[in-house]
Structure formats: structure tokens, C-alpha cells
Amino acid sequence: MKPSGIISLGLVAIGAAMILLPFVWMVSVSLKPHAEVFTTDVRLFPQAPTLQNYWHAISETDIPLYLFNGVVVTGGILVLQILVTVPAAYALAHRDFPGRKLMFAGIVAALLVPFHVTAIPIFIGFAELRLLNSYTGLILPFVATAFGLFLLRQAFARIPTELIDAARVDGMSEIGIAWRVALPLAMPTVIAFSIFSVTAHWNDLFWPLIATTDPQLATPPRGILFFRDEESGDDIGPLMAGATLITAPLVIGFLLAQKRFTQGLANTGLKG
User: Is the pTM of this model over 0.85?
Assistant: First the structure.
């Protein structure tokens, strides 16, 4: 191997170690008995691994409830995003109507506006409508997604116009073409978007921290704050076990869909 290749490989290994070390340490602490957590010497791996911290996190805390809330909120957001985004992105890619280019430019511009800018007006509006402290209040602000529209519009635009015209000649409606022709052809991009969406909203702490005060509605990151408040002190093992349980579904989901994720980004021209 050339010296430049060895240097590149070394830099990649150092970067990977810096990213992965906190996760490895989290899992390691979650497997350590209480006596091993606070010691004068630092050991990366536990000497006497135990699952007691996981049992404590599952049976004596509300971690299962937080995971359930996370599934409801992220699943609800993703389903509604797909229902809204697919026909809208198809119209932007294959329908001709006045203001289409201006509308797409507005969507691209919206990508530059962080959610935090609009959070306060949304909070005030939801307070007036009494939608705070509810699943609706956690889901509704994210149903319309500029990123999803941009990503799927780019994927749908790569579908040949002749194929769309052939479906029209066969008598399919525009909404039928969007769901039965365009969506299956763009499925890798839909999967890539789904991974982005689930990861962003599963890990989101900002909006749940503003929109909810009820612990029964806490999503995983918000729940960890409640858990930390209740268990703070020297009971770090169950806290790390809870954090591992909350992180695990995302890691497993990404590993299972990794190939489709790469294909989806390539279909939109976003691959580096």
C-alpha cells in the first residue's frame, strides 16, 4: 500500500474511533455492575458483565413508555409525510401548472430555514388550538417537509416522461400514476428519506421539550431527561442502559437499510 493510502486509512480509523468511542463507552458502562462504574482506574470493558442495568431500566422506569411514544410520534410523522409528499413531489416533477418553478424555488429556499425559527409561532398557534401536550401537537408541525419534497421531486424527475405518458394513455389517473408508477420506481429514495425522517424525529429533543410537559407523552430523548432527573446521582448504569435501548433501534434500522439508503441518495444526485 502506498504511503498516501496508509495515511488516509489512518485518518479514517482515527475519525471512526473518535465517533464510536462514546457509544462503546455507553454500552460498556451499561454492562458494568454498580461497583465497577466508579473506580479509580479506567477500564473500557467490564470485568463482570451483567444485564441487571437493562432489567432495572425496563422494569423499574418508564423507558418502555418512552420507546412506545417514540414509535407513535416518528411513525405518525413518517406516514403523514409520505401521504403528503408523494403526490406533491409528483406534481412538481411531471405536471405543468402556473408557478411551478416559483413554488420549487420556494421549497429550496425553505431548506435554509431552521425549524427553530418557526417554533415560537407554531407554539402560540397550538396553544390557541389546545394542541399542546398531545400526540397531535408532536406530529403535526412536521407533516409538511421541504426536504422530503425536494428529495422525492428529484427522484421523480428522473423517471422518463414516456413512461408517465404511457400510463396516461392506459387510462391511469394522475394520483394513480403517482402511487402505482412513480412511488415504486423511487422506492430507494423513499427509504433514504424515511431513514432521515425517523432519525431526526426519534432524536429530536427541541420540540418535545417545548410542546409537552406531561411525562406520559415523553419521546425517548425527552424521557431520558425525566429518567436522569429521577435516577441522577450514582445510578449511572441503568441510565446508560436506557440510552443504549433508545439508540439501538436506529442503529439496527440503518444497518438493515444501508444498501437502499445509498441507492436512494444516488438516485437524487446527492451522492458525493
Answer: no
Separation of alpha carbons 123 and 113, rounded Å:
17
C-alpha distances in Å from residue 95, one per residue of 135, 145, 158? 35, 20, 14
Question: Nearest to residue 25, comparing CAs of 244, 200, 272, 205?
Answer: 244
pLDDT digits (tens, 9 = 90+) for 86-120: 999 999 999 988 999 999 999 999 988 888 889 99
Q: Give the Å distances, CA to CA, from 160 to 91, 181, 182, 192, 222.
A: 15, 11, 10, 21, 45
Query: Which segments of the chain have a pLDDT < 70?
Result: 228-234, 264-272
**In angstroms, how far is CA 139 from the centroid of its own chain?**
13
Which residue is associated with the grid cell 446521582? 233
* Cβ partners under 8 Å of residue 139, min gap 6: 73, 76, 77, 80
Distance from C-alpha of 243 to C-alpha of 25, rounded to nearest angstrom: 12
Q: Is 233 left (phi over 0), alpha (psi -120 to 50) or beta?
A: left
